[in-house]
Amino acid sequence: MSKSLHKWSIVLLLSLLTACNSTGTRPEYVAPDPKAAEINMRLGLNYMQRGDYAVALEKLQKALKQNPNLPSAHNTIALLYQQLGENDKAEAHFLEAVERAPDYSQAQNNFGVFLCNQGRYDDAEARFLKAVENPLYETPELAYENAGLCVSRIPDLEKAESYYRRALQIEPTLAKSLMRMAELSYEQQNYLQARGYLQRYQAAANWSPQALLLAIKNENKLDDQDAVSSYTLILRSRFPDSDELQKVNQGLID
Questions:
Q1: Residue 251 lies in a domain
Q2: Which domain holds residue 41?
Q3: Measured distance CA(3)–CA(103) in Å, rounded
Q4: Helices 140-151 and 121-133 meet at what angle, rounded to 10?
Q5: Is residue 76 part of a domain?
Q6: Contacts of range 229-238, beta carbons closer than 8 Å, 24 or more positions apart
Q7: Is the separation of the CB atoms in 62 and 98 below 8 Å?
Q8: Which of 151, 103, 156 is nearest to 124 (CA)?
Q9: CA distances from 74 to 64, 87, 103, 243 (A)
Q10: Which ranges constitute the DSSP H helices of 50-86?
Q11: How far is CA 2 from CA 6, 59, 109, 149, 180, in A?
């Protein structure tokens, strides 16, 4: 299972959120130019997605000077600091984002990914579950999937399975969850169930060498040598230099 950040289901930004209203006696901060802050936040996001981190950082810092209450700017600059390896700054801005807007599910999800990559699994799980509390969250399946990926590192495979199932109840074609369920089913020696998940994976996504190797191993357990040969042919034609094909060639499919 890959632990690299880019394979997580991270939602950078789909909408802009405004600051929460102050309820204390202290006067609420009045942003000098909130529209300009949103524009610079969007520019920063665009530059970050293009890999121009220096300009992205400049735009995002400017946005926060123009409106320190803008949760989306805190979320975006946190993602940027995460990419730059400045984890203390990333965490500080994630906290700013979710404290200013607790229902900001994208930020809760992103914060969860960050915490999980730091090995703080319980804290990460809590953030994913906080994300799905918002009934208006458009992609709760991604937070459930991330929760499954995270708790599997503990490892708590029973809980991971429950999260993958929740994700698939919302989005039955979620490829990563289908693959993880196929792997868990294989490890539990439930080979027919693993076959079903792999067939669903095949319909939802392009084959990867890892998925093909699992399919070969699973069909070998089911003693369907025609299927083994078919999957091996696909692996050999699409991924001739893969480590997975080397394992098949060496007979390491038991």
A1: no
A2: 34-101
A3: 27
A4: 160
A5: yes
A6: 234/207, 235/209, 238/207, 238/209, 238/212
A7: no
A8: 151
A9: 8, 14, 14, 41
A10: 53-66, 71-84
A11: 10, 32, 18, 9, 11
Separation between Cα atoms, residue 27 and residue 77, nearest integer Å: 26
What is the share, in percent, of the chain residues with pLDDT greater than 70? 87
Contact 98, 111 (CB under 8 A): yes
Per the listing, tokens 């319909």 go with: 203
Report yes or no on 169 lying in a domain. no
Domain CATH for 77? 1.25.40.10
Instruction: Supply the DSSP symbol for 19.
Output: P
Q: pTM for the whole thing?
A: 0.84
Torsion, Cα of 85, 89, 93, 99 (10° steps): 120
Q: pLDDT for 99-142, tens place per residue?
A: 999 999 999 999 999 999 999 999 999 999 999 999 999 999 99
User: Looking at the 3D structure of the chain, how many domains does it have?
Assistant: 1
Classify 246 as helix, strand or coil. helix
Residue 78 lies in a domain: yes
CA angle 15, 37, 128 (to 5 degrees): 35
